Amino acid sequence: MNALDYFNARLEATISPMDYLRSKQIESEKYFLIDVRNGPTHVRSLTIEDANIIPEQELPERISEIPKDKEIIVYCWDVWCNTAAKVAKFLLEQGYKVKELTGGIAAWQQMNFPVSKSNNISDNCGC
Fold it and tell me: What is the pTM of this model?
């Protein structure tokens, strides 16, 4: 793979927090954002505003909650976390159109974008 192919593939598979926020403001119904983070409840209490919380370990039994007619955006903790990439791969194999939010919730918070407290968190941390 040459550099151009690499960057084209990377841009096709990811979306930056700024690009996602801008695109969602233009076409709010186009996207379905999923917080796929695993971990203890107390560390997952903040989530990106309007995100659907479906931890990676719950995904197979909750896949029916994910619409096939929207572009799915998945995120996890940070650039060092590969949970969102694993979920994206799984959803792509199921026929979904998926992108990973680059930098996860850490990048989102760093940019001071809207977050909210989540009341819909399962206690099964998947640790």
Answer: 0.89
